TrEMBL record:
This is T-cell activation inhibitor, mitochondrial. It comes from Strongylocentrotus purpuratus. Residues 182-498 form the DUF4461 domain. PANTHER family: T-CELL ACTIVATION INHIBITOR, MITOCHONDRIAL. Residues 27-130 form the DUF4460 domain. One of its GO terms (cellular component) is mitochondrion. It comes from the Eukaryota.
Length: 499
């Protein structure tokens, strides 16, 4: 199906030549890349998304682009940075936390910007919370071989699996056992480089403050928000482009007055009225979109009363749209989904009144969903409850299906929601204390990290700061699922770091 699959299915013999030796620190062989990516391919393969055409198509498209990018790296071709969206099947994550059985899959955005195959593959696995042990092992093996002339043929693991022969390396690898990385070790190794990068990025961050102040003042904006995985240099570049567009198309840019502008991944008008401009679009696309904003905004006044009407039909819940970087919902698509659900529920009431037996006469008691947030999504996928307690409903489901789901899960959703609200309060308190005690510039968590995971992390940081082994004063720290040092000096550490 895809170009890169020839590597997945091919007989795996690995011969390392002279060129490989010269670049062993930067490159993995094709076979090593294939083996390292197997868990990822298994999690996103389109064949497992037969019932979800939208997610299947997205994964198929993203895999084609990913394989093309990796092929380019292996062949030393010029590659351009991009960001891909994948849907991962619900599996037990690397951190060992129990998964939510109601969640069928989750979306993950993966940025491809490195010219180094090792860094690229490592980033893919880390972004999906998959083990990077195999790739770390390959890195160590390749480093040990540097300077040698490797004549022996090194067979791929699948050769031993197919033939039933014993891999002579298995016992050696078990005995060696790569030790886990501790937080203090990683910080000691990277703290100096982090401070250098932080200092180099200081002018860029100061320019961002200046540009934001200028644009907010000139255009009368509520705010300018950065919602992208790219670093501060990309944010600064987008702000400069926005300033140029403002100077060249002043009249059109007045359509943004009073808005919150989000520089993100997909240009659109959100259901809450925020204007999202894609950081990957050319200025002409921005101008074209902004010029049509007045027409698009006409739908916004109809959304709140329509949400309230659906809330009444669903038992008094709070109805809203998914917001933030994970959402692609537009104001128009959200309104259309609301109308579709209202028509579905109204039709069910009409059938019940007539006493017809085509539909089971289920009813949602008034107030049964009081205090529950219901997020309306598109027409693909299954209903589920996220870790915040928010209930995600698909607009194409039948009324009996929706009613049964809400009756069965209302109590669980309310408990999760209450726990989430309690966690958010405790999280804010712990972050404040960690900022003060460790003298950090910022302490944030990635969207993939839950408040409860953030709480566990902050408690460990607060217990004994001396354990860190280094002074982290004035650093920008983000809690994620893996270690990383960003180009602008931001430090990423896993929430379940080891002492």
């Amino acid at each position: 199906m895809f170009a890169f699959q020839r590597y997945i299915r091919s007989p795996c013999v690995k011969l390392l030549g002279f060129n490989s030796i010269c670049r062993v620190r930067r490159y993995l062989t094709t076979a090593q890349t294939t083996e390292a990516l197997r868990p990822f391919i298994f999690a996103v393969h389109p064949d497992f998304f037969g019932q979800y055409p939208k997610e299947r198509a997205a994964n198929e498209k993203s895999l084609k682009l990913l394989f093309s990018y990796i092929d380019g790296l292996h062949q030393d071709q010029r590659t351009s940075a991009t960001e891909l969206t994948f849907y991962l099947r619900n599996q037990t994550p690397l951190n060992g936390q129990p998964v939510n059985k109601g969640v069928i899959f989750r979306s993950v955005k993966i940025g491809l910007s490195s010219l180094d195959i090792y860094t690229t593959v490592n980033g893919i696995l880390a972004s999906c919370d998959l083990s990077t042990a195999v790739i770390e092992q390959y890195k160590q093996e390749n480093a040990e071989k540097e300077g040698e002339f490797p004549r022996p043929v090194e067979w791929h693991q699948s050769y031993y699996a197919y033939t039933g022969k014993k891999n002579p390396k298995d016992n050696v690898q078990r005995k060696q056992g790569r030790p886990e990385i501790t937080l203090s070790y990683w910080l000691k190794k990277n703290i100096a480089e982090a401070r250098k990068k932080l200092e180099r990025s200081r002018p860029t961050k100061e320019e961002i403050v200046s540009l934001r102040r200028y644009l907010i003042g000139q255009l009368g904006l509520e705010d300018i928000v950065w919602e992208s995985m790219w670093d501060s240099s990309m944010f600064c570049s987008c702000l400069k482009t926005m300033k140029d567009v403002c100077q060249q198309h002043w009249a059109i840019m007045q359509n943004l007055r009073g808005c919150t502008v989000v520089l993100g991944d997909l240009t659109r008008l959100t259901p809450s009225g925020r204007v999202v401009l894609s950081s990957q679009d050319v200025p002409h696309h921005w101008v074209s979109f902004i010029s049509g904003l007045p027409k698009q905004r006409e739908i916004l006044p109809f959304i709140p009363p329509t949400e309230q009407a659906l809330s009444t039909l669903l038992g008094g819940c709070s109805v809203k749209a998914l917001e933030g970087p994970a959402s692609t919902m537009t104001a128009n698509s959200h309104y259309a989904a609301l109308v579709m659900l209202i028509e579905t529920m109204e039709k069910h009431k009409f059938v019940k009144r007539k006493g017809e037996k085509e539909e089971e006469c289920l009813v949602l008691p008034e107030g049964i969903t009081q205090g529950i947030n219901i997020i309306i999504e598109g027409s693909t996928g299954e209903q589920y409850i996220d870790h915040n307690g928010d209930v995600h409903l698909m607009c194409n489901k039948s009324a009996p299906n929706i009613i049964r789901y809400l009756l069965s899960n209302a109590k669980n959703a309310r408990e999760l929601c209450n726990n989430h609200m309690s966690d958010v309060k405790e999280e804010a308190l712990l972050i404040s204390r960690c900022l003060e005690e460790l003298e950090l510039a910022t302490l944030t968590r990635h969207l993939d990290v839950t408040p409860s995971q953030m709480i566990a992390c902050c408690r460990k940081l607060e217990e004994n700061p001396v354990r860190l082994g280094v002074v982290v004063r004035n650093l920008h720290v983000q809690i994620r699922h893996h270690y990383a040092l960003r180009r602008d000096g931001d430090v990423c550490i896993p929430w379940n770091w080891k002492e």
